[in-house]
Amino acid sequence: MVQISLRNEADEVRQSSGLASIAADLSSDQRAFKNVSWGKAMMWIFLLSDTFVFSCFLISYMTARMSTTVPWPNPSEVFALEIGGTSFPLLLIAIMTFVLISSSGTMAMAVNYGYRRDRVTAAVLMLATAALGAAFVGMQAFEWTKLIHEGVRPWENPWGAPQFGSSFFMITGFHGTHVTFGVIFLIAIARKTLRGDFDVGRRGFFTSRKGNYESIEIMGLYWHFVDLVWVFIFAFFYLW
Amino acid sequence: MVDVPLGAAGVPPAEVEDVELYHPKSWLTHYVFSQDAKIIAVQYSVTALSIGLVALMLSWLMRLQLAFPGALSFIDADAYYQLITMHGMMMVVYVLTALFLGGFGNYLIPLMLGARDMVFPYANMLSFWFYLLAVVVLFASFAVPGGPTGAGWTLYPPQAITAGTPGLAWGIIMMLVSLMIFIIGFTMGGLNYVVTVLQGRTRGMTLMRMPLTVWGIFTASVMALLAFPALFVGCVMMLFDRLLGTSFFMPEIIEQGARLPYGGGSPILFQHLFWFFGHPEVYIVALPAFGIVSDLISVHARRNIFGYRMMVWAIVAIGALSFVVWAHHMYVSGMNPYFGFFFATTTLIIAIPTAIKVYNWVLTLWRGDIHLTVPMLFALAFIVTFVNGGLTGLFLGNVVVDVPLSDTMFVVAHFHMVMGVAPILVIFGAMYHWYPKATGRLLSVPLGRFHFWVTFLGAYLIFFPMHYLGLMGVPRRYYEMGETAIYPQSAHDLNIFITVMALLVGAAQLVFVFNLIWSLRHGREAGGNPWRACSLEWQTPVTPPPHGNFGKELPVVYRWAYDYNVPGAPEDFIPQNQPPLAGEMAGRTP
Question: pLDDT tens for residues B71-125?
């Protein structure tokens, strides 16, 4: 990145006030979003597109839930865990949510340590994030197994509307796939960080482009997004 | 909008280092697995045009069946529905979308913006190979047991996945999978187009100096990134309904006395998802055409585009509005009538920015120095055709008029005029216009003129009579009219006339294909800027532009793309990278 040393009038406009500077940036040459790299811009726009995917899934599910004439199974009972004879509603889901939100914390710390060029700490934090993500997917798998044993199938379930199982497997499956991809990429980027690829400007295997520590931040954007999507799934599917 | 004042040097300094290009080492990475946007563009275009020829031949078979029912022994009702489905889906998604965004987008965005390449060449390459895979899966459905799906291009459930619809065993699965692969591939390309436009422009190239072609392709790409997810989700859910027996879209159905294992789903939900994609899709095809035609008219009428800013805002407004009109495709679906009122209103509002564009095109021509070159002929034909198709759109956008006309040939005539013929005319015009840049040679003009007149007049002879058939109540999607006394003999005769015209127009496209191939070797040498145009793609040091587009130094932009016939200028056009002339106000925008 070239440091801009020449100060021109556009810079002064940019520094003057919020709205005016936004307009000046957007309408200026070269880049609409100043100091946003190509990779980061791409990730933001991809996430916008992915938001539409999950919105369509959730809206379709809500349509099915609202229009079905058969009673909808009660999520508090379905997703309850029995420990020592007491039934705890949504216990596993609460743990899963806690795990995933914690992983956002470790991810944010990894980004910070990456920019400080603390390779080892950044990589360890990323691996911790990946481990938490894997734990989340593992608990998801446990949840799926439990429900399948209780007779829930995509096309039927013992308690009511068959769309319950359909939506559950489809939405959590799609989200779980996102988490799994995130875990794979986290491990790959952690490996690059640990090996010092971003310091020596080693070229990527596929793209033959030099990476830099911003990769961790871009990875983080994706991870926080997946986390945020889970919050919506939690609210609309489990708490409703 | 704040105009950006320029620094002492006239242009702001470079904010990003010049990119390091990937240099291919072998023939394979140079021409086949190429990461160069221009080669990817040619790959996309050739693939899409080939599919277009196949889809054209499918329409021939349909027309033959309609005109001479039973004459072709291999077309029964099932085969007819398969032809309809494949023709529609191929043309809309695999030809028009791929050609405008993958073909013209890849070729023109980096060149017009003064960029070396797309921002992510590797993802760009993957985008094409995913597209090709989607095409292979789609064509493979011709070979599977039961053949391709015959659900109609809208794939409405429950009909699409119940017995009686051809292709139930394999075809529908292949279709859904192919669409999903296409969407994944498009997402990789679309992110490239959008980020390149936003973040990858050269020095001096502000958003409001971009050629309208880029504005059209950019807006369409953004829309596609937001609209395709709905289709993707619809495909996933229907695939589950078909393969796993879920009931997202399937209500309780009794078939030949037996109850199907479905129940409780909503077929209307699919229609909403489909048209939330499907209506923006119309403008995903139309907006690049709007942009390209603006540039063609401006160049060949030697006149600056009238109302540039209005043109930009009209493109953006149409793009935004097109997300809130989708249910006008569903007036007869049984949804709440108040929805019809809302969607009719938004549909008619979209006519305003569209009319602004039409007026501005005409005003650009007004007192222009019009050169009736082949691209210009196609551009003019587009305006006429688009107005025609747009006017019947006003008919169909009103609930009370749409209800009797729904599912008649009138609808077929309308959408073929507005999103079939009109964008294809622009594609032809654009091919004649940019072929010299891509190959260094001009396409043959006499062949081009012949191609134009047969295509333009022929398209009207095909689709005008269809309006009449529709008003008489001839339904669409019927594979024969049969012994029906309610249609007069004239309707049957018209059907034969339309078919003959369709065969002629289709055959004339072979002249175009011949022209494309013949001119590659024998066309007239074009030079770097045969049309004397202002925009950056014509200012490359070498034609056709090599890898990296602009040689050592990227161009610097000092003006908009429409400085034609500027008083006092030495020539009748001033290229975008021409620094301010003596006496010209420095740094004026656009």
Answer: 899 999 999 999 999 999 999 999 999 999 999 999 999 999 999 999 999 999 9
DSSP state at residue B244: T
**Mutate which of A42, A48, A175, A205 to test chain B, going by most B C-beta atoms within 10 A?**
A42
On whether both A166 and A60 belong to a single domain, the answer is yes
pLDDT of residue A12: 53
- Which CATH number goes with the domain that contains A227? 1.20.120.80
β-pair partners for A203: A210
Quick: pLDDT tens for B504-556.
999 999 999 999 999 999 999 999 999 999 999 999 999 999 999 998 889 99
Tell whether B334 lies on the interface with A, counting CB pairs under 8 A: no
Q: Which residues of A touch B208 (CB under 8 A)?
A: 27
Number of domains in chain A: 2
State chain B's maximal CA–CA distance in angstroms.
Answer: 86
Residues in chain A within 8 Å Cβ distance of B264: 64, 68-70, 161-163
Q: Are residues A54 and A4 in the same domain?
A: no
Q: Which of B199, B202, B265 faces A41 most closely, judged by CB atoms?
A: B199
Residues B4, A10 contacting (CB under 8 angstroms): yes
ipTM for the predicted complex: 0.93
Cβ of A52 within 8 Å of Cβ of B557? The answer is no
What's the full length of chain A, in residues?
A: 240
Distance from CA of A22 to the nearest CA of B (A): 10
| Contact check, Cβ <8 Å, B225/A27 | no
List of residues 6+ apart from A108 with CB closer than 8 A: A220, A224
A78 and A31 share one domain = no
**Residue A214 burial by CB count (10 A; 0-12/13-18/19+): exposed, middle or buried?**
middle
Q: Which residues of B touch A1 (CB under 8 A)?
A: 16-17
Q: Are residue A40 and residue A27 in the same domain, yes or no?
A: no
Predicted local distance difference test score (pLDDT) of residue B487: 87
Query: Which of 158-197 (B) contact A at CB < 8 A?
Result: 187, 190-192, 194-195
pLDDT attached to residue B2: 37
* Shared domain check, A57 and A176: yes
- At A14-69, the pLDDT tens digits run 556 788 888 888 888 899 998 899 999 999 999 999 999 999 999 999 999 998 88
Average pLDDT score over chain A: 90
Structural domain containing residue A3: 1-35
- Which CATH number describes the domain made up of B32-251+262-539? 1.20.210.10
Same domain flag for A19 and A66: no
| Residues A40, A24 share a domain | no
Best B246, B271, B558, B560 member to test A by mutation, with max A CBs in 10 Å, is B246
pTM score over 0.90: yes
From the CB of residue B373, how many other CB atoms can be counted at a distance below 10 Å? 21
Whether A142 shows a pLDDT value over 80: the answer reads yes
SS3 B238: helix
Strand B254-255 to B258-259 pairing: antiparallel
* Residues in chain B within 8 Å Cβ distance of A37: 199
Which residue in chain B is spatially nearest to A36 when comparing CA positions? Answer: B199
User: How does strand A81-83 pair with strand A86-88?
Assistant: antiparallel
